[in-house]
Amino acid sequence: xxxxxxxxxxxxxxxxxxxxxxxxxxxxxxxxxxxxxxxxxxxxxxxxxxxxxxxxxxxxxxxxxxxxxxxxxxxxxxxxxxxxxxxxxxxxxxxxxxxxxxxxxxxxxxxxxxxxxxxxxxxxxxxxxxxxxxxxxxxxxxxxxxxxxxxxxxxxxxxxxxxxxxxxxxxxxxxxxxxxxxxxxxxxxxxxxxxxxxxxxxxxxxxxxxxxxxxxxxxxxxxxxxxxxxxxxxxxxxxxxxxxxxxxxxxxxxxxxxxxxxxxxxxxxxxxxxxxxxxxxxxxxxxxxxxxxxxxxxxxxxxxxxxxxxxxxxxxxxxxxxxxxxxxxxxxxxxxxxxxxxxxxxxxxxxxxx
Length: 354
Prior knowledge:
The protein is of the alpha/beta class. Helices cover 49% and strands 11% of the residues.
């Protein structure tokens, strides 16, 4: 008796090969670790890194993604009227995307989509493209999303040629600015630093989008040597403003500190408004009076804890947890070992300490 097995198509074979390469090259931890490393090491603007990370994590508000959050409107692509606008379509399948990616300098005509998910597709190129071309690819992905949003909000869009020229021109200017900063400026690069001997530092951040009732908070705790000790990410079901969600982040950070029973803590946030309203003697923001009062009471009992403002540059790790918290349905905590998807940013922030 002869059995005939179903023949696999080329896309299925290619997808299996890519994933086998990834999984066999990673004996433990996140199989996408190389993708995260390439994204955070790429010489591109920080906002581009953040948005590409969000795309890989399926956190961008495409119409398909919004439909899982209660959106019941049109699911068509804003640019080409394809029936279903998801991350893979926006960045790889939409005609303007394919026109760019199959042309020079990318020449990705043998793209494995649609059999690969977007994150798998980008991982494949992260493993094979040289640094300069991978940086250009990230810029194009950012430009494609910006072009989509311009169509949504302003009813305007760029052609493929305009999009490539504008995004690569921005990359060139960014590269020149970085070169100047490295060679001509005497001012040292701002970098995250531990609090100092005997004091731990907790960096917190909040995420909020106008028109959406919920938000997310997160925080990362380092000891006095800069070593990771804990992190948290939690959804906040009812949020009315950016200031309010940042206050919630501080409050949840205080809970983490209490849970771990540690002392001598500096809590850092990149929201100066939140720090200011905690320090004020009278309530200026009536709607936030309850949460501000809770924070003040805790700080009055814990004189070893202070809340300070820092720049966004020094709050990158907490910021990278933003979208996880925003999209999550349940709270998460990590102790001693950080989640894989922030390891790259953690290492980058602390490399000057070694």
